[in-house]
Amino acid sequence: MTISRNARFLLATLLGIGLAFIYIPLTVVVINSFNSSRTFSWPPTELTTKWWGMALDNTGVRDALKWSIIAGLSATFIALLLGTALAFAVSRYDFFGKDVISLLVVLPISLPGVVTGIALNNAFTKQLGMSTGLLTVVIGHATFCIVVVYNNAVARLRRMGTSLQEASMDLGANGITTFRLITLPNMASALFAGGLLAFGLSFDEIVVTTFTAGPGIQTLPIWIYNNLFRPNQTPIVNVVAATLVFISIVPIYLSQKLSTDSSSGGRF
Amino acid sequence: MSAAVVVSIRSLKRSFGDVRAVDGVDLDIREGEFLTLLGPSGSGKTTVLRMIAGFEKPDSGTITLAGKDVSQLPPYERDVNTVFQDYALFPHMNVLANIEYGLRVKGVSKEDRRKQALIALKQIRLEGYENRKPAELSGGQRQRVALARALVNKPSVLLLDEPLGALDLKLREQMQIELKALQREVGITFIFVTHDQEEALTMSDRIAVFNHGKIEQLGTPREIYENPKSEFVSEFVGQTNRIEIDGKKINIRPEYIAVSSSSSTGDRSVKGTLRDEIFVGSATRYLFDTEAGFSMISTQLNKNLKIGDVVTLSWPREKEFLVQ
User: Fold this and answer.
1) Least CB–CB distance from A169: residue in B74, B106, B150
2) Using an 8 Å Cβ cutoff, are B211 and B232 in contact?
3) What's the pTM value of the predicted model, to 2 decimals?
4) Which residues of A touch B87 (CB under 8 A)?
5) Which residues have a Cβ under 8 Å from the Cβ of A16 and sit 6 or more positions away?
């Protein structure tokens, strides 16, 4: 496709503005986490790592980081198990209501977090009589983490086709051996990418977390939200925010790289 | 040939929804023979192969393998191996691991299976390629690895599902010869599925011609070509002129029709005018309108004819055949 010079210029400008809107504020946050001025005068006159040191020493931050990692890993683990199983059921077997199930699994990612959060909170506390805590956060996060694992797994299974499994069984391997030696190794990169995305989603989630966490647990995003308007905490908030940005970028980058790298190695 | 029957198929049926893919097939396959299931796509040949392998279960009928009814057994409990159309090599394993796979899952010791895999690798002339991944091989090499991966298990029957379909013409012709030689060497029964009639005629000991889920004719390549039992077989295998003489419908292959400018040279003859010619390299197909009203094709070494030339077409009567 060829586009005229003017159109190209216009598109480049719009792209630039769009990217600037997203990334300039993020960059400011990251730079400010090193800004030595307590009032964050701009541009920074001097850079320092003292806020980072303070954040590391802050027990509130350390606890929040711990809870975020535990919740993220647990939700990812559940999502990997259930998402893979669902992907298998939907792409390898025919059963009544298959399309509906496939839609229902994917739906939570597009549902408003507020609705999911309130509904889950209601179900946990009113219907099931559970108290909110780590378990409810993990279940809440798993609802949308499953989606990315499921989507990745379904796409990979579709591309793999059934002939590798047939070849394995033809050569004498039963279903379990075939899964272990053939199917799983060929899905591993897709599942790893899905797991990374799931962890990234869980790590910076705030809405569902608010409704499912209860008073005992603070994840990093909730800690930021609670401390945002306390002026003396602002330097640490910047540090935590910068950390969140980095931790969220890495999984996305890796999973994108994995998906493109493995796209050529599927079938023959 | 009176070798023992190794695969015996009786009243085999299989439907997919409303489509009767396989509609009552009976077939005995002898030990050590090269049998081809030939037919257009959708004729049921591949479904029969997949039922022998165990990937599909028959709706009714039986498949007996070396005297044992295997109709309901899963693929991994049958002593057959398959070469797939897309090869289905395991992309995450190197060539050697691919070939060893069958022995590995059967619990053969590491040393033994390595030794056998290396012999198989030598057989397909790919020594030195053991550490390559399938993605690093050419189409022909993948094909050979797929063959070795199946044959190393020494199955009593090897199933081949259009294995040459993805190769270019030159390589395909070369592989046809190699495959036939390999089959003679290992002495294993080959059941070969193809829609390519030339391939079937070249390689097979016997051919089963499939149409609409049934076997239309079973016989040696020569029987199938020279004495087709039905209109479908005569059309599908080679070209044929279907004409009516003295109220009788007869068929005659184009290569038996001689063209001469003077008198006739066979015991049947008719005058014809050249309407068109199709050059196919080694020969030319000439299309004539005859004075009897029908048109005829004659395949000849390239002749010096011009459109509109009037000639005599003649052929020996014994080469004619009747079909139902």
Assistant:
1) B74
2) yes
3) 0.79
4) 268
5) none
CATH 2.60.40.1120 fits A59-232, yes or no: no
Say whether residue A185 is in contact with chain B using an 8 A CB cutoff. yes
The rounded distance, in Å, linking the Cα atoms of B176 and B156 is 21
- What does the pLDDT look like over B121-178, one tens digit per residue? 998 889 899 899 999 999 889 999 999 999 999 999 999 999 988 788 888 888 898 8
Q: Cα(B150)–Cα(B34) distance, rounded to whole angstroms? A: 16
Q: Answer yes or no: are the C-beta atoms of B17 and B189 closer than 8 Å.
A: no
Could you give the C-alpha distances from B62 to B28, B53, B71, B73, in angstroms and in order? 12, 13, 6, 11
Strands B68-69 and B60-65: antiparallel
Same fold flag, B5-233 and B249-319 = no
Specify whether domain B249-319 bears CATH 2.40.50.140. Answer: yes
Report the topology of domain B5-233. Answer: Rossmann fold (3.40.50)
Q: Vertex B269, ends B264 and B273: CA angle to 5°?
A: 95
Under DSSP, is residue A230 helix (H, G, I), strand (E, B) or coil?
A: coil
Q: How far apart are CA B36 and CA B196, in angstroms?
A: 10
Domain residue ranges of chain B, discontinuous segments joined by +: 5-233, 249-319
Count CB neighbours of B45 within 10 A. 30
CA A115, A121, A122, A124 torsion-angle sign:
positive
Q: In Å, how far are A250, B262, B303 from B273, measured between CA atoms?
A: 78, 14, 15
Dihedral (Cα; A26, A32, A38, A43), 10-degree rounding = -110
> Would you give the distance in Å from CA B24 to the centre of its chain?
20
Instruction: Search chain A and give the residue with CA nearest B87.
Output: A268
Query: Hey, what amino acid is at A215?
Result: P
Residue-wise pLDDT tens digits, A215-262: 778 888 888 888 888 877 888 888 888 888 888 788 778 877 776 654
Per DSSP, the residues of A156-186 read HHHHH-SHHHHHHHHTT--HHHHIIIIIHHH
When computed from its CA atoms, the radius of gyration of chain B, rounded to whole angstroms, is 24
Measured between CA atoms, the residue of chain B closest to residue A162 is: B88
To the nearest whole Å, the CA of B199 is away from the closest chain A CA by 23
CA distance A109 to A116: 10
Domain ranges of chain A: 59-232
ipTM attached to this prediction: 0.83
Residue A89, φ and ψ in degrees, nearest 5: -60, -45
Instruction: Look up tokens 């994108």; give the residue.
Output: A256
